[in-house]
Write a structure and sequence with these properties.
Chain lengths: 109, 490
């Protein structure tokens, strides 16, 4: 069978998952390498949204809506997390202005 | 919808709203005592109701949350534990001259999440209850925002817990994508085909990683010592007991549903996690000089002991794990009653500071000593029975299975190591090495309110009674584990 241009242009589950996994790994990389707490926190949100993309794609290809509901819950929880997280980071910034990860070194044996 | 499954939580939510209204409507000098009394009475009533009114399990197929025997048992445990920590929190707040409601309402809301987590029957609810608990803990860990240590612990916990939940959602996405369902009962009947098997197992391992963070099992333990040390003692106690219990309850339900526990490869997987947690936790606890940090490492080791049950599988091992978990959380309650007193009165959680306990607060010193002995597994106490039951389950399986026997021997070695540092704590209380420090800290007697005695007695009862008369608790945990038996049959 000859592969036509259409078969390459049809977007399937694999494409969505590839994008999702790439985003997820970028987020993970950001958490591990970036030094600014706000950027680390942004990377965290990127990971959550990568998972959301995977959930929506699976929901579409499974033909049931459980995944979509899950995404709604994840978005809600992420908003709550950001509210609390930013409050923490702001009160940290009041102690020492440049909010670098390297400054978090008071607690060790 | 299963209304019975969240009656107690609704009651608790009503209590929180009542406390918030009381806080707003009373004068500054009145509302602390009133709110405190209302909280204790409310939690007490809910605890009694959970034993008298809600006696029979209500299971509705395909409901998101179930009131099965396991849920009922753990709801009672969380209410008793919540009552104890409510009192300890209050003591801590009173000494800080802080606002009563702002900490306690967050604490009670996290308790709602914990109680809901015990009746989870769906991946969606698993994620939600875990996040209710986690978001409340973000606030509580970073609550003491005047000290840099608490904030640092808060940010560390925030980033690590956020990472864990992101990893868990990715896992849920894959498990849902392959199996097409979020329900635990349907997941138990599902077996992936040849093409999708790898993606399915990747999803399951990601979920276990997310939950492994909560229980601070070995490769996911890195946050625990720093966060435990940085935050205030009552919050550390909650993290070490209730938050860990949430992780284990969810892990028990999820692992029984989605993993064929007892098959060789799954046994090896859990055995490696358990053995490395036991050895890492016990060996790293030895040189610690800060009691909260020591409890963090001992908590990693205790998570390892409880994970032994997953490598064995079967209802008997699960029942032993529940027994161990219940005894462990109440030992932590007793220990943190003393540690929070030390932290507020002496201002340090160094091991040397414990030497003032016998003179200044003999009851708290005794409680800390008993809880350390219970965690070490000294025979008349309940901690011994917990370790005995887990090892019994392990040895029964190990008769036919050499790797399991090796695992049991590793666990025994871990227990022997742990006796050293638990008794080091007892030595620091009663036979301190440094006499100068003893003189320096000897001050006036610390006044313990009668409510603190109540919390101490709850902890003492749960540490001593099940040790002398194991059937008292063992019948209950067998009854609780019977729920998982249905999931395990598939």
């Amino acid at each position: 069978m000859i592969a036509t241009i259409e078969t390459y242009l049809t977007i399937g589950l694999g494409h969505y998952l590839t994008v999702s996994v790439i985003l997820f790994c970028l987020g993970l990389l950001g958490i591990m390498t970036r030094r600014n707490i706000l950027v680390v926190y942004m990377s965290l949100e990127l990971m959550l949204n990568a998972a959301n993309l995977a959930l929506i794609a699976f929901s579409r290809f499974n033909q049931n809506l459980d995944g979509q509901i899950m995404v709604m819950m994840v978005v809600t929880v992420a908003a709550a997390e950001v509210a609390v997280g930013l409050a923490l980071i702001v009160s940290l910034a009041r102690h020492k202005l440049p909010i670098w990860i390297d400054n978090l070194n008071k607690l060790k044996y | 919808m299963n209304f019975a499954a969240f009656q107690l939580e609704t009651g608790l939510a009503a209590l929180v709203i009542l406390l918030l209204i009381l806080d707003g409507s009373c004068k500054q000098s009145l509302h602390v005592a009133k709110g405190y009394a209302a909280g204790i009475v409310g939690l007490g009533i809910l605890l009694i109701l959970s034993f008298t009114y809600l006696k029979t399990p209500v299971v509705i197929p395909e409901a998101l949350i179930q009131l099965d025997t396991m849920a009922l048992g753990f709801k009672r445990m969380f209410l008793a534990l919540g009552l104890g920590f409510f009192i300890i929190n209050q003591n801590w707040i009173a000494r800080r001259r802080d606002n009563f409601i702002s900490y306690q309402s967050i604490f009670l809301l996290s308790l709602i999440g914990m109680m809901l987590s015990s009746s989870v029957n769906n991946l969606l609810m698993m994620f939600l209850t875990m996040e209710i608990v986690a978001v409340s803990f973000y606030v509580m860990v970073g609550y003491n925002k005047k000290t840099e240590q608490s904030l640092e612990a808060g940010v560390k916990y925030l980033i690590m817990a956020g990472l864990a939940s992101a990893i868990m959602i990715m896992g849920i996405a894959f498990v849902y994508g392959i199996s097409g369902t979020l329900d635990f009962n349907e997941l138990a009947e599902f077996t992936p085909d040849e093409n999708s098997r790898d993606a399915y197992w990747m999803g399951i391992i990601l979920i276990v990683a997310g939950l492994g963070f909560k229980i601070s099992a070995f490769p996911f333990q890195y946050w625990a010592p720093d966060v435990y040390q940085g935050t205030s003692a009552p919050t550390t106690g909650m993290l070490a007991s209730a938050s860990k219990a949430v992780g284990f309850i969810l892990l028990a339900r999820f692992a029984c549903a989605a993993m064929p526990l007892g098959s060789p490869i799954i046994t090896t997987f859990w055995a490696i996690l358990a053995a490395s947690s036991i050895l890492y936790g016990n060996l790293c606890a030895i040189p610690q000089r800060d009691i909260k940090r020591l409890i963090a490492f001992s908590g990693i080791a205790n998570a390892g002991y409880m994970m032994l049950a997953f490598s064995v599988g079967g209802t008997m091992a699960m029942s032993a794990m529940f027994y161990y978990l219940i005894v462990y959380v109440f030992s932590i309650l007793g220990a943190f009653l003393a540690i929070s007193l030390i932290e507020t009165e002496v201002g340090s959680t160094d091991m040397d500071a414990l030497s003032c306990l016998p003179q200044r607060a003999p009851f708290a010193g005794f409680l800390l000593a008993v809880s350390m002995a219970s965690m070490a597994g000294i025979p008349p106490l309940a901690g011994f029975m917990g370790k005995f039951l887990l090892l019994k389950a392990l040895f029964i399986r190990g008769m036919a299975d050499t790797p399991i026997l090796i695992l049991a021997i590793v666990a025994l070695i871990g227990i022997i190591i742990s006796i050293y540092y638990y008794f080091l704590v007892i030595r620091c209380i009663y036979w301190p090495a440094n006499q100068a420090y003893l003189l320096r800290t000897s001050g006036s007697k610390i006044f313990l309110t009668s409510a603190l005695y109540l919390a101490g007695v709850i902890s003492l009862i749960m540490m001593i009674l099940p040790g002398i008369y194991p059937e008292l608790l063992l019948d209950g945990t067998d009854w609780m584990a019977s729920t998982l038996g249905e999931l395990l049959q598939h």
